[in-house]
Design brief:
Layout: E1 3-5, E2 8-11, H1 15-24, E3 30-33, E4 50-51, H2 58-72, E5 82-84, E6 87-91, H3 96-105, E7 109-112, H4 114-120, E8 131-135, E9 139-141, H5 143-155, E10 158-161, E11 166-172, E12 175-180, E13 185-188, E14 190-193, H6 199-205, E15 214-223, E16 235-238, E17 244-248, E18 252-256, E19 261-262, H7 272-285, E20 295-303, E21 310-313, E22 319-323, H8 333-345, H9 357-360
Parallel strand pairs: 1-13, 2-3, 2-14, 3-10, 6-16, 14-22
Antiparallel strand pairs: 4-9, 5-9, 6-8, 7-8, 11-12, 12-13, 15-18, 15-19, 15-20, 16-17, 17-18, 21-22
Helix pairs in contact: 1-5, 1-8, 2-8
């Protein structure tokens, strides 16, 4: 049985695992153990990929805001990560109260007239919305470039071990040991659980108390909005977040019912009913004839019971969590990686993320 020793092990090579390993790399030789043949196969590769400050709980907004500078001025080797894209939220009459609440708790939101909204998205039906909000300070993210940039940084002082599913995990002589499907054993004093939907499974395999993570399926599809040219449209949806649509693949439109269907940890597949619901809700708002669905897919967004992130050491020494990112893992990744690395080293987190520490502490579920 081959044994490989490192300073840290990261289980999962999606965005959470990649940013954790990249931020540990300056001080820790790190192995990333990934069950699939490619990194980011599940949630990371299926993201809607837009940075929105007014999204998620307080901890998410702190880490999202603290990540902005990274996206706008990325380090060498990452390329261009951000392209401006506004967020347009439409309010039918029954959603006016929800819109008022959204304005009270949100930042950078401006109310505009329905006529102004229709100037941005000409397909909006005359009888759909009575009010609208716009968040101009948002942008598309290049998820593939961000993910690959973190993986490159991680590999400078470590290894990406694909097709290495971590099975048995145990503590021995101060190290965490993970036996992979190939029979190899990887060991290190630190283990970072970045397994996404499989996070609680990894914890149980290690004899660590799970957190109650719940994977939820989200569905999306690609449509042709012709005769409309949607390339410069904002992301558009309703205030209640029961559907949204955004430009995708040049002149196409990505549509989602914003579903959150409880799921097992699995390779998520789209459900025809969810696709139909998304198309129907979009068509209630936008005058777009759907001739065919060109592509459809689903992914898992995994939430902790309180829908906040889980970053840091839980009930077992040296076992760190980087889980529960829900739908926020891409836009929080730069700051979340910084936070995880600081906690792993026993250092004080940077001032811009320090307030998130008690909110994301996995020990809150003890």
């Amino acid at each position: 049985m081959d044994t490989h020793r490192f300073d840290a092990l990261v289980i999962g090579a999606g965005m959470a695992g990649a940013t954790a390993a990249a931020h540990l790399a300056p001080t820790h030789r790190t192995a990333i153990l990934e069950a699939e043949e490619s990194a980011g196969y599940h949630t990371t590769g299926r993201s809607a990929a837009i940075w929105i400050l007014n999204y998620g709980n307080t901890d998410t907004r702190i880490l999202t805001g603290a990540s902005r500078g990274f996206f706008e001025s990325p380090p060498e080797g990452f390329g261009v990560l951000a392209q401006p894209r506004a967020i347009l939220s439409l309010a039918p009459a029954e959603q006016l109260e929800a819109m008022a609440m959204m304005r009270r708790v949100g930042m950078g939101l401006t109310e505009i007239s329905v006529a102004e909204a229709r100037a941005l998205v000409p397909a909006i039906r005359e009888d759909y919305a009575v009010a609208a909000l716009i968040e101009r300070d948002a942008f598309d993210m290049d998820v593939a470039a961000l993910h690959e940039g973190f993986l490159r940084a991680a590999r400078r002082n470590g290894e990406l071990a694909l097709r290495r599913r971590a099975g048995r995990v145990w503590r021995e002589a101060g190290d965490w040991c993970a036996e992979t499907t190939g029979g190899e054993v990887f060991r290190a004093p630190l283990l970072v659980n970045a397994a996404g939907a499989w996070g609680d499974e990894v914890a149980r395999n290690a004899g660590v108390r799970p957190l109650g993570l719940q994977p939820k399926r989200r569905t999306a599809c690609i449509l042709d909005p012709a005769p409309y040219d949607a390339r410069d449209w904002p992301l558009v949806g309703d205030v209640a977040h029961s559907w949204y649509a955004r430009p995708e693949a040049r002149a196409k439109l990505m549509v989602s019912p914003a579903d959150e269907t409880d799921s097992e940890a699995t390779d998520a597949q789209p459900d025809e009913y969810d696709v139909a619901v998304g198309v129907d809700r979009m068509q209630q708002a936008l005058d777009i004839e759907v001739r065919r669905v060109e592509h459809k897919w689903a992914g898992l967004r995994t939430f902790a019971p309180d829908r906040s992130l889980c970053i840091g050491e839980g009930s077992e020494r040296g076992f760190l969590w980087m889980c529960g990112q829900g739908g926020y893992g891409i836009q929080t990744a730069p700051a979340a990686g910084r936070l995880l690395a600081a906690l792993a080293r026993g250092e004080a987190p940077d001032a811009d993320i320090a307030a998130a520490v008690p909110l994301v502490d996995p020990g809150r579920f003890a």
